[in-house]
Write a structure and sequence with these properties.
There is one protein chain. This protein is of the alpha+beta class and about 130 residues long. Helices cover about 35% and strands about 35% of the residues. The chain is built from four helices and six strands; from the N terminus they run E-H-H-E-E-E-E-H-E-H. Strand 3 and strand 4 form a beta hairpin.
């Protein structure tokens, strides 16, 4: 089963780290990613650019509205996502408790990925019927 792991970090704390400590953090994290790959638990992942590069879309007054930055203002910022292959939530938690970024104050939110296959099939059928 796929689990989406959202990684949050404190930008101020990260920027205050000496370069050698930041490099050690990255090295340990990438090494753990390699471990997840080698054991069949890596489903993908991406780092994100800073929130100052974000654009939030919403629907207001009958049209799309855009706002610079993330939707929520928080101390912690979403830094990236990791797609994890695990048997169940307990297994996902077990795998992520070993992630080195936790020791540097990062936080992970773990959510099961939604299986949209049946909804997509039903939608395809409805759309095909509407074009007949």
């Amino acid at each position: 089963m796929k689990y989406i792991c959202l990684g949050y970090y404190d930008k101020g704390k990260f920027e205050a780290m000496p370069e050698s400590e930041r490099n050690a953090l990255f090295d340990r994290c990438f090494e753990y990613d390699d471990h997840l790959r080698a054991n069949g638990h890596w489903g993908g992942g991406e780092a994100l650019q800073g929130p100052e590069t974000a654009l939030t879309l919403s629907w207001k007054n009958g049209k799309v509205s855009t706002t610079d930055g993330p939707y929520a203002e928080t101390k912690e910022q979403l830094g990236g996502i990791l797609v994890l292959e695990a048997r169940d939530m307990n297994h996902a938690v077990q795998l992520m408790t070993q992630h080195p970024a936790l020791k540097y104050g990062n936080v992970f939110e773990i959510r099961p990925a939604a299986d949209m296959n049946e909804l997509m099939k039903a939608s395809e059928q409805r759309r095909r019927q509407s074009t007949i």
